[in-house]
């Protein structure tokens, strides 16, 4: 398949980056004569996401890693059935851009606290009609669904054992979201507790990801991580906050 300007992450997996500083990630996984889309980025990515899916043979369905504004943003506008974990259906179908469990008052830098409500509403495309659900152990285009609760109650990742590729949405961050600053190259962290449904479970999910010993960790933001020592990097990430 021809993928134009998209980045090839692994065999049959393509990454479309967009929005502010190209910081939002949408993944496309080859599936027969079309693709499965994992995550939906921000509303501003709608046009590019539609074009990318068409270029790859057509999107059969969208699977949300979770229902936060910067991951569901384009989903209502793409005319494609949308799936998510059962525990995130209520948030996906809500018209709220800020999840009820988020507590932005925990962010230590005042300007960051002030700008995030604006950013979340800008990124969001509104309520998403959920056509079906996927849960732990289900298969999606050759990947196994893994439930990684914490950052969101129904956060999921996709894991392919054959080449140890993990598509993980927001299980980990490569940015200090409390200060809107990138982390040092090659480092990641558990997301800040201000965003978390359950921060302790978010740490457990990072440790579960580490135990898989992935060779590629492709998250919801920034470049994919690659290497043979990612387990140690992920174990350190679980202790960042």
Summary, kept brief:
With about 240 residues, the protein is an alpha/beta fold. Helix content is about 20%, strand content about 25%. The chain has helices at about 45-55, 70, 90, 110-125, 200-210, 230-235, and strands at about 5-10, 15-20, 25-30, 35-40, 60-65, 80-85, 130-135, 140, 145, 155-160, 165-170, 175, 180, 215-220, 225.
Description:
The protein is α/β, with parallel strands linked by helices. The protein has one domain: Ribonuclease Z/Hydroxyacylglutathione hydrolase-like (Metallo-beta-lactamase, Chain A), CATH 3.60.15.10. Helix content is 22%, strand content 26%. It has six helices and 15 strands. It has helices spanning 46-55, 69-72, 89-92, 110-123, 199-211, 230-237; strands spanning 7-10, 13-18, 24-31, 34-38, 59-63, 82-84, 130-133, 139-140, 143-147, 156-160, 165-169, 175-176, 181-182, 216-219, 225-226. β8 (139-140) and β9 (143-147) form a beta hairpin. α5 packs antiparallel against α6.
């Amino acid at each position: 398949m021809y993928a134009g300007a998209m980045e090839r992450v692994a065999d049959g997996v393509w990454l479309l980056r967009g929005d502010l500083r190209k910081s939002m990630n949408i993944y496309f996984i080859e599936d027969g004569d079309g693709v499965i889309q994992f995550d939906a980025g921000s509303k501003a990515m709608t046009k590019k996401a539609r074009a990318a899916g068409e270029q790859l043979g057509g999107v059969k369905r969208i699977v949300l890693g979770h229902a936060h504004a910067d991951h569901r943003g384009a989903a209502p506008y793409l005319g494609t059935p949308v799936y998510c974990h059962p525990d995130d259906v209520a948030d996906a179908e809500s018209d709220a851009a800020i999840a009820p469990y988020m507590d932005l008052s925990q962010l230590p830098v005042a300007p960051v606290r002030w700008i995030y409500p604006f950013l979340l509403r800008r990124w969001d495309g509104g309520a998403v009609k959920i056509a079906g659900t996927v849960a732990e152990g289900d298969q999606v285009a050759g990947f196994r669904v893994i439930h990684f609760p914490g950052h969101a109650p129904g956060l999921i990742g996709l894991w392919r054992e054959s080449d140890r590729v993990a598509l993980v949405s927001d299980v980990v961050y490569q940015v200090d979201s409390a200060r809107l600053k990138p982390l040092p190259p090659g480092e990641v962290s558990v997301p800040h507790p201000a965003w978390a449904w359950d921060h302790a479970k978010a740490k457990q999910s990072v440790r579960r990801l580490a135990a898989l010993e992935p060779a590629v960790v492709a998250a919801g933001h920034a470049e994919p991580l690659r290497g043979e020592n990612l387990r140690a990097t992920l174990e350190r990430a679980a202790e960042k906050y």
